[in-house]
Amino acid sequence: MMPQDLERLRDIDGTIQSSQYLHLDRSGEGFAVTWKLEERPLRERLIDPNTVGDETQFVMKQLVLGAEEGIALAMEHEGNVVGVLAAVEEASRKTLRIVDVRIDFDYRREGLGSVLLYRSVQEARDRELRAVVAQTKTNNVPGAHFLRKAGFELAGMDERMETNHDLVKEAVTLFWYAALD
Hints:
41% strand; alpha+beta
């Protein structure tokens, strides 16, 4: 990714569409708590514009300018940026944390996201890191399927990462892990 690509990030149509969500059922209490995750239909179809947030854009800028350790990749087609991936190296954990991967809606299902993801895994191997990590929300079923297909394993969840009401909103954060050893 080049500095001029940062201006074109907002042109990528990152819309998430899904008629499913991953339902988290929590039962028990104390140390006897259990969670069950299952795919269920949404009450109404999800159409989320999934725009690039200020925090993500800031991290991408830091990566492109070399102020942050990691990778920022962009894919172009006919002069337009159609896909990006940003990942930050977390040296203390020896991991590469994917901050964002997005493919323009018109270019999905062509393997572009897989190329970006596999390139990040190779970069993590080259840096001798132990894993690549990512996160999705339970309402982003396409993202969860994409990571599973690429060999990531569900490693945990946080039902209160954003607010104390995420479980009710069906927007629990899921953590994904691709071990490299």
